[in-house]
Amino acid sequence: MRPPGLEDAYRRLEITAAAALTRLCVDPEIARQVVAVGGADCLPSYRVEDLLTEDENQIEAGLLKYTKSLRKACRKAAKQIDIAKASDSSTLN
């Protein structure tokens, strides 16, 4: 969730994060997915029986297409976003 008044700053952060992930040789689509979840915990704890889908092929394809590279990118992005948030809060105090 973005604090009120900082929407533009967070949008710039999203653009920077996506570009940085792309430079780290992360597929651009995966970079966009990582940024879309905000670097939050994107390691799903899904169990097959918990999924509300009838598309068995999608389940067999890797639980909503989470890949090893996406998990790595999520961890890297989460670390950088935490650093950015710490910088944001330190400048507001």
Task: Summarize, please.
With 93 residues, the chain is mainly alpha-helical.
Structural descriptors:
mainly alpha; globular; 93 residues
Describe the structure.
Helices cover about 60% and strands about 0% of the residues. It is globular and about 35 Å long. The chain is an all-alpha fold. The protein has one domain. The protein is built from 4 helices and no strands. Helix 1 packs antiparallel against helix 2 and helix 2 packs across helix 4.
Helix content: 55-70%
Task: Note the overall shape.
Answer: globular
The end-to-end span amounts to 19 Å
The tally of domains stands at 1
Q: What is the helix tally?
A: 4
Largest sheet: none
Gyration radius, rounded: 15 Å
Uncertain runs are 40-54
In N-to-C order, the SSE pattern is: HHHH
Oligomer: single chain
What's the count of strands?
A: 0
- Average pLDDT, rounded to a whole number, is 64
Structural class: mainly alpha
Q: What proportion of the residues form beta strands (DSSP E)?
A: under 5%
Describe the protein's topology.
Elements: H1 7-23, H2 28-36, H3 56-60, H4 68-92
Helix pairs in contact: 1-2, 2-4
